[in-house]
TrEMBL record:
Pfam families registered for this protein in UniProt: DUF2383
Residue ranges occupied by any DUF2383 domain in the UniProt entry: 10-116
Name of this protein: DUF2383 domain-containing protein
Organism, as annotated: Emticicia aquatilis
Annotated Gene3D superfamilies: 1.20.1260.10
Lineage of the organism: Bacteria, Pseudomonadati, Bacteroidota, Cytophagia, Cytophagales
Length: 163
């Protein structure tokens, strides 16, 4: 029978796997874009997710478990990241940003589910809140880049019409 302790450990391992998948996805994104702004942003996100996974792994060990080292995971989030990686093959800035937005939205949902658990200690809850907040901030940046890209295209189209 699975205990609350086991469920918490499994949930933390799922978050570790999500962060490993973010790392893999953003590494692929870096290799598929030439724009320095995106390369810098994606590199920063990779570093964040690496740190997140390490912090979560410490809690898994404290709970008597073995931290996941996998970058794949079960359920919908797994498919989301597969779709994310496949979409990156187009090397289109908007498509890449759209895929990043979708993947990070799913990561936030996973953190939200974890934060609903009653078994979280206050330090662990605080850690998850901080990590979720940082992912949300990255998502906001991605969305602003998507909007800027769309606005630029609209401006160019308008200028072309007037000439």
């Amino acid at each position: 029978m699975k205990t609350q302790h086991d469920t918490l450990r499994d949930t933390l391992n799922e978050l570790i796997e999500i962060n490993h998948s973010r790392i893999d996805g953003y590494k692929k994104a870096i290799s598929d874009v030439t724009q320095e702004d995106l390369q810098g942003l994606f590199g920063s996100i990779i570093n964040e997710s690496d740190g997140f996974a390490e912090s979560l792994a410490e809690y898994v060990v404290k709970l008597g478990g073995e931290p996941s080292t996998s970058s794949t995971f079960l359920g919908k989030v797994h498919q989301v990241w597969l779709d994310f990686k496949a979409a990156l093959s187009s090397k289109n800035r908007h498509t890449i940003l759209n895929s990043c937005e979708f993947g990070d939205t799913q990561a936030i949902k996973a953190y939200d589910l974890a934060l609903e658990m009653n078994e979280l200690s206050e330090p662990l809850r605080a850690l998850l809140i901080v990590q979720r907040t940082i992912i949300a901030e990255s998502l906001d940046i991605i969305r602003s880049l998507m909007k800027a890209n769309t606005d630029t295209k609209s401006e160019i189209a308008a200028l072309d019409i007037t000439q």
